[in-house]
Write the structure tokens for this entry.
Amino acid sequence: MKRVSTNPVRNVLRVLTLAGLAAFSPAALAAPPTGPTANPVAASSNEYMAHWMVTTWTNKVGNRDLQAQIDLTGTSILRDSVLFYESSFGNFPYAGPHLSDSPTYMAAHLAKVGRDIAAKIPDPNFSGYVCIDYETWQPNWSRTPNSRSNGAPDARDFDFKDDWEQHLLLNKPQVLRGLTGAARDRAMEVTYNQAAQKFYLDTLREGKRLRPKAKWGFYGFPYGEYYTFLPAYVNKWRNVNDNEMGWMFDAVDVIFPRVYSVFVTVEDRLPTPGRYENTPAANARYIRDNTLEAVRVSRGKPVMPFLYFRYHPNVGRDMEGKWVSDLVIRQAIEIPKQAGAKGVMIWDCIESEQQFIDLRRIVATQVAPKMNAIAVLPGSNPNSNRLASGASRDASVKVSSTAAPVVVKPKLASVPNQ
């Protein structure tokens, strides 16, 4: 999730990772529903709590940690979680895994991981949740972007695949020697995946070694998919999760998908053609399907979707960063529970006094009451020991499994070279 970037190239790349947005024909919208909600699973959790992952960009607000000033007393939102951004967890190789494909680099990286953990989690018996947020490049070749660049190998550009090829030619020429065409491409893919996975897994192992009682995971996996009612999208999505990301789901303690608002949900009219808008039913389906997919690949481990109560940069400059509606907040809180999540992670990054004031108000008046109404304490009966008596429900948070949502897909801007 990072702090929200204002770099348009970075935002486009993050959207590609998050929502799988490519062109399709209008006829495709009439396709029968597919994906996880084609056969909904009734899930009953014996625990459902919210966990606070909000951070503060302290150097923008007078070096004050404003998130710590938001009072969560009496709520079902727990301060038991730690988030490590890539800028503050080890020496993240921004240019790509070709930099970390070195014992010397990894030794320095893991040493800094240890210092970062000691500084942020001083208690060796910490037993809460820890999320590692590595986003600049992906740990699998098929999801890795590549934009040609003339920058140096360590430049913060987006020519990840080109850099990997050059790394092999310079440092491991035997890997590509004599190979052409598909065989050469496959060799680059296999070796890239091996190096990327090693970086992720070695980092995770060090965290688990130093704080073995904590529950560790990576932010944003499994990958998100918005068009879960289109068979081609669902098949590709599940293929990646099953055949390319199993190593991660095996290794982590907890699954941290994201169900951010990548479309603006309109409640009093139909979505406007050509804009990133959807209906409440479409938004509910998106949240439910992504949670269900995370549960499917979880190996029985807890699933904790990340929530963000403002609009993602994908929606366009006019709505980016604005607060979502009360209905969308309610969907984000309630639907993951219906889909089998163990809880939710509330994220934001406070960058101004006004954001702090707004978030404090929204948590107190909208988020906490909705969460309290459905929260289930660990080890309690999910039907009898809620923190508050059951609040009324309405159909707005339910997901239909019989109709594809009405959504018009705008074209995504091309990614310029850097």
Observations:
- The two ends are 22 Å apart (CA to CA).
- The CA atoms of residues 121 and 185 lie 42 Å apart.
- Residues 181-210 form the longest helix (30 residues).
- The longest strand covers residues 81-85.
